[in-house]
Every structure is written in structure tokens, then in C-alpha cells.
Amino acid sequence: MKSLGKISAILVSLLVAGTLSNTTVYAKKHARHAHHSPQARSYAHPVYGTENLIAEINQAVNKADSNAIIGIQVKSMKHGDMLYSRNEGHLFAPASTLKILTAEAALIFLGPDFKFPTQVQTSAKSSTNGMLDGDIYLVHSGDPSLTYYDLTDLMVALKSQQIQGINGNVYIDNTAYDQDNIGPGWTEKDTQYCFAAPINASIINHNCISLGITPAKTEGHLATIIENPRFYYSGIANSVVTKGSSNRSCHISVMTQPDNTIAITGCMPKGRYSRGSSIVIADIVKYNESLLTSLFKRFGIQVSGQIGARTAPANLSVLAVHQSKPLHILISEMLKKSDNIIAGSLFKKIGELYTNRPGSWSNGGSAVKQVLAQKAAVNISDMHLIDGSGLSRDNRITPSQMIQVLDYAFHNYAINYEFISALPIAGVDGTLKNRLKNVAWKVRAKTGTIAGVVSLAGFAVSKDREPIAFVIIVNGHNGNIWQYREIEDKIVTALTNYTRT
42, 75, 99, 392: which one is catalytic? Predict the structure, then answer.
């Protein structure tokens, strides 16, 4: 087992990787602008002692709208002392910082190397001249990274086994999760967008389809719909009319019909510019049925029976399998990009495997809380975990609970490297790529934003290379998210300038 001292040294190195060289470059590049930038000024001046740090944080918080409730907790990962607390026991809607809890529970319970399998199974015991005498099942397990290309690879695997046809039916099994695909508390408006696509055991291209729309060269003619080969389209009904180039009243509507056909209506002005659009897959099973019908036809595999949905019985033979990338890679994508689909699927997967029942929002929330309580000693009292992603307004946690999660993630050698390296790096990548550039590489943290909520939680390295965990959650603000992001950035900048001496 690694010693705690070595682990801490490794993690501090991870947190400050590139700090010296990048800080030097930043300082030289922006020196002439230093007197214009509040962040640049605070970057240059150390914050001596905890009392001064508290004063700096209070000064930033006092600029907030009086209607906003702000929760903050700051703790040294080296010495274990609490450097600042404010409303630490208040229950807040955390927005996407909730993904921190989902990531930690997944790494603990599933393990960093866990993979989602997608399998083609069969009841056939024999084949005659390439014809399988039995049924075929496409068994989904909730792989949030599964793509149309991955399914074509499964078909290639079938063809490589000289399978020419199926004397039976083809079934889609998406029963690993329940069929309640929309998270509790998600708004109807949100569910129209791909960031709130259905969380089902079948997730193909994030259950979202993209396409392009290009105006015709001649007025009155239909626009051209550009299909992306990465996606499967059940069908497209296009009635978008090209109008004059000066027309400013045109709008395009993209909707899914009950048969999963995409209906595109409206008009667009003539010109050289195309526009992109995305649409959520509404009926998961029907989309699978249409996709498989197309694939079997494309690969010349005859199906004598029907294509529908059914739970796969036990003891079937596996014909082909696709494995997702390891969990730690999925978690990196989830945290860096704030991916709600990965988060939702992990949430349900933990619930499924913890309870041995189809994964659901309910058992996912219970399971994640139990894993954090039993394995990470997190106080889960009054904690409400609804969807794993933070999209729901009904999620509730306290800053103190979040700090406990971060504290465990930092000090537990089995998951700490995978967890910390997955967090966005200030000024470098993910959702922090364009924030906190004045302290680039010295902060790794998860952002969060929904209506009325702004949050930031993660780790910073002080001027003395002391690792510090922090949580900042704002609820009930007046809608000016930039004001509160600026407050967050000032607080975090103060942490990077903090020195005990």
C-alpha cells in the first residue's frame, strides 16, 4: 500500500502540473495589463494567514445580491483544518457539481476499470447454411458512449461468423434500467435539448441526432438536409422553404414524429450559410427497431421473424460484444464536459447493481448515498440525490457534505488519481478552459449552473503548494450568473495566493 505522504505528494504534483512554466508565461504575457485586471492584482499579492483569507472571502461574498444564499466551505487537505465556513449545513441545489458525488460513488462501487457491455445474444443451438435457428437479442446495459458505428461493428462481427440469416425474431432488451427516462424535476423545456436526452439502458449517440440544413440556391425551393454518417436517421420529412436573402422572419422547427421520423418545417433565407440542428430520440424502442431493420438489410442478413422488444432469457449464447472504454475515461469526459447523459447512466447503473433490480432514479439515489456513507464516511442526513447530473432542481446537498466527498476523494489512494485528473483544469480544459486563466493549472474543479444556481467545487493549490478543497454554492440569485462566477473566481484566486506564514 502506498504511504499517505507519497500519495499526497503525487496529488499535489498533479494539481500543480505545469504551474511554474504556465504561470511565468501568463505573467509575462499579461504584465502590461495588470493594472486593469482585479484578478491579476490579487494574483500578485499573497494572502497572509487564515484571518486575511477569511477577510478576502467575506469581501467577495459581500458584493452578492441580498436575495442570494451562499454556502462555502474551505478545508486544508494537508493539515485537515477548516479555513472557512459559511452556511455549511444549509441544503442547496448543487447543479452540476452533483456529478462529483456520482463520480466518486461510481469509482468506489464500480471500480475505475468497469466497462459497459453491449451484447448480441442468441437462443439458437445450431445453424444451417449460415441460418441461425433461433432468436437474436441486442442486450443494452446503459453504455452512455455507445454509437451507431459501434452497432455496425457488431454487425460486422456477425458477418465474420458467416451468419446469413435468422430463422427467428430479433429483440431489443433495454430492461437493465426502468423506462422512466426523464429525471424528476427536469423541466419540459430542458427535455427538448440533447443535454437532457432520455436516460435509458439503450443510449445510442447520447440519444441525440444531429443534422445540417442548407438553403437552396433558388428562392421557393426546399432546403437541403445534410445527414451525418455518424448517426442513424429513421426518416426525414423536409418542408423547409428557401426565402429571399433579406428575409429576417424565418424560423425552423425540428420535431420527432411518433414513428421517429424527423419533421423539419419552416423557412430559411437564401445564402451560403448552413445551420446545424439536434433533436432528441423520443421513442427509444422504436428507434432501435428501425435501426436494426436498416442494419440487417445493409449487411444482407435476412430475418424471418419480427423485430421488437423483450427481456433476454438467461443462458443465451453470446455472438458478439462491444465494450465501452473504462469507467475512469467516461468519468473524465463526464466531469470535463459536464456530461449529463454519462452522469445519469452511471447513477442508474449503480442503482441497478447495488439493488439487483432495474436501475432507476430512486434506487440510484439510494445506492449512491449508501456507497458514500458506508465507504467514504459521508454524512448523508437530509441529502436528496435525484438524477446524478444536477439537472434537477430537487437535488439537495450541504457544502459540508460536498467537502466530505472531496476529502475522501483526495486521500483515498484507490480512486484519487482518476478522480482529480478528471476534474476540469482552470484556464486549460473542460468547463474551466476560459475561466481562472490568471491561476491556470492551480485549480481543478467542477462547475455548476442551472436557473438560480451557480456552483464550483474542487481543489486549489496555495502559494505554499498546500492542497485545499473548496465548495461554493449560490442559490436564489437574481439571474446575473457572471456576477457570481466572478465572486467564485475571486475566492478561488485568494486560495491560490494563501500562505500560512
Answer: 99
From the list 290, 332, 338, 345, the catalytic residue is 338
> Known catalytic residue: 99?
yes
- On the question of pLDDT at 30 being above 70, the answer is no
Residues 340-366 have a mean pLDDT of 98
What's CA 363's distance to the chain center, in Å? 20
pLDDT bucket at 21, cuts 50 / 70 / 90: very low
Integer Cα distance of 81 and 74 in angstroms: 9
* 243 has catalytic annotation: no
Question: Does one domain contain both 366 and 405?
Answer: yes
Count of structural domains, the chain: 3
* Residue 96 annotated in active site: yes
Of 46-55, 105-114, 267-276, 413-422, least confident by mean pLDDT is 267-276
Kindly state whether residue 124 falls inside one of the protein's structural domains: yes
Which structural domain range is residue 89 located in?
4-113+327-499
**C-alpha distances in Å from residue 417, one per residue of 140, 157, 327:** 30, 36, 13
Q: Would you say residue 27 has pLDDT above 60?
A: no
| DSSP secondary structure, 168-210, as one string | S-EEEE-TTB-S--SPTT--TTGGGSGGG----S--SGGGEEE
Report percent pLDDT > 90 for the chain: 82
Are 216 and 241 in contact, with CB atoms under 8 Å apart?
no
Cell numbers standing for residue 196 = 437532457
In a domain, 197, yes or no: no
Contact yes or no for 461/467 (Cβ under 8 A): yes
421 within domain boundaries: yes
End-to-end Cα, the chain, rounded Å: 33
Of 220, 255, 280, the last residue of a domain is 280
> Which CATH number do you get for residue 71?
3.40.710.10
Q: Is the dihedral of CA 346, 363, 204, 168 positive or negative?
A: positive
Structural domain includes residue 127: yes
